[in-house]
UniProtKB/TrEMBL annotation:
Binding-site residues, Zn(2+): 182, 245, 262
Protein's organism: Stutzerimonas stutzeri
Keyword Protein transport among record annotations: no
Source organism phylogeny: Bacteria, Pseudomonadati, Pseudomonadota, Gammaproteobacteria, Pseudomonadales
Protein name: 3-dehydroquinate synthase
Pathway: Metabolic intermediate biosynthesis; chorismate biosynthesis; chorismate from D-erythrose 4-phosphate and phosphoenolpyruvate: step 2/7
């Protein structure tokens, strides 16, 4: 097992990474203060891992909350059902909420923990690659609004993150690829050598090679912990973790939550950010194509949906959380391995980027 730390003063916490950690109850017990525990999961993950996790928590009074699966349920109604279950089972302020599942469960259970009785402890047990490398670390919690992704939420750090890499063996291949979008993101924004490592190892990752997965998760979590430790509330560098997300969130919202997986939308959005960075003269066409090739090899879409026009993007992007004083800010690449958050770009370059025929561009870049 490997242990990393997110350094945030009194809100610091460990990230445990290893195989079969769900059975290691002692890792969880160290971070549970009371006698009550509520495991929040969904109807896909529960049959796979709930019994084992419950066994690890046999010393506690455990309530299980099984939510319907899907991004479409990351909303007020589902959140309310978590509070219903906690109150019905009389959970007090000493309770600990444990999120068992992907990013949807982690974001919702974390937000429930931030709100329930003005804040109770919570632990992340992420079971998708995306949640293991990104959403379980850093304390962003929340739900979607019909008008915008993740528009209602709180910064609220967990007590610990327990990453059991063996859970990825049951993850559908499409979901694994979606997680790789966020892994590749770290290479692009802050770790160019990691991009090289990914080029050499992406096939092993897709084949679920445990050593390669552990290394990718460790390096991703280390990058995320570093960025969150420097800027917990996203007043600066943390925004760079959102490479491709402003375009990607527009895709998710426009297509209807769940139609495109978050990582798929981030992948197509990343290609748009790469293309815009190239148009600004910050990266070359061959650097853009190098990044696109890794996304393609990871099994990810690199072309935005055919039904989206430039106006659709602009409309959704206007409600992005990075809009400040009415001004759109985007995460772009100064070079491979270095991202910036900037509003300093000509509007025409953004519009030209949105109007690119990405199918044709991908054809060209292959030839
Ligand atoms: P998800 O939570 O919807 O999980 C994907 C699918 O895999 C679901 O059907 C889930 O039930 C299933 N699943 C989970 N673990 C499994 C396993 N081990 N075996 C088989 N099936 C399994 O999606 P996700 O990609 O994990 O997370 C996406 C969400 O995370 C989005 O809502 C996004 O906004 C959010 N997110 C949050 C942050 C953050 O910092 N908080 C960062 C990135 C993404
Ligand atoms: N996923 C972006 C962040 O945590 O800031």
């Amino acid at each position: 097992m490997q242990t990393l730390h997110v350094d945030l003063g009194e809100r610091s916490y460990p990230i445990f990474i290893g195989e079969q950690l769900i059975d290691r109850g002692e890792l969880l017990s160290r971070h549970i203060r009371g006698k009550q525990v509520a495991i929040v999961t969904n109807d896909t993950v529960a049959p796979l891992y709930l019994e084992r996790l419950s066994r690890s928590l046999a010393a506690y009074s455990v309530t299980t909350v099984i939510l319907p699966d899907g991004e479409a349920y990351k909303n007020w109604e589902t959140l309310q059902s978590i509070f219903d279950a906690l109150l019905t089972a009389r959970h007090d302020r000493g309770t600990t909420i444990i999120a068992l599942g992907g990013g949807v469960i982690g974001d919702m259970a974390g937000f429930a923990a931030a709100c329930y009785q003005r804040g109770v402890d919570f632990i992340q047990v992420p079971t998708t690659l995306l949640s293991q490398v990104d959403s379980s670390v850093g304390g962003k919690t929340g739900i979607n609004h019909p008008l915008g992704k993740n528009m209602v939420g709180a910064f609220y750090q967990p007590q610990a993150v327990l990453i059991d890499t063996s859970t990825l063996t049951t993850l559908p291949a499409r979901e694994l690829s979606a997680g790789l979008a966020e892994v590749i993101k770290y290479g692009l924004i802050c770790d160019e050598p990691f991009l090289g490592w990914l080029e050499a190892n992406v096939d092993k990752l897709r084949a679920l090679d445990q050593a390669a997965l552990t290394e990718a998760i460790r390096r991703s979590c280390a990058a995320k912990a570093r960025v969150v430790g420097a800027d917990e509330r996203e007043s600066g560098v943390r925004a760079t973790l959102n490479l491709g997300h402003t375009f990607g969130h527009a895709i998710e919202t426009h297509q209807g939550y769940g139609a495109w997986l978050h990582g798929e939308a981030v992948s197509a959005g990343t290609v748009m950010a790469l293309e815009m960075s190239r148009r600004l003269g910050w990266i070359t066409a061959s650097e853009r194509d190098r990044a696109v090739r890794v996304l393609v090899r990871a099994g990810l879409p690199v072309v935005p949906p055919a039904n989206m026009r430039a106006e659709d993007f602009l409309q959704h992007m206007a409600v992005d959380k990075k809009v400040l004083n009415g001004q759109l800010r985007l995460v772009l690449l100064k070079r491979l391995g270095e991202a910036v958050l900037t509003s300093d770009f000509p509007r025409e370059v953004l519009e030209a980027t949105l109007n690119v025929n990405y199918d044709a561009l991908m054809q060209e870049s292959r030839t």
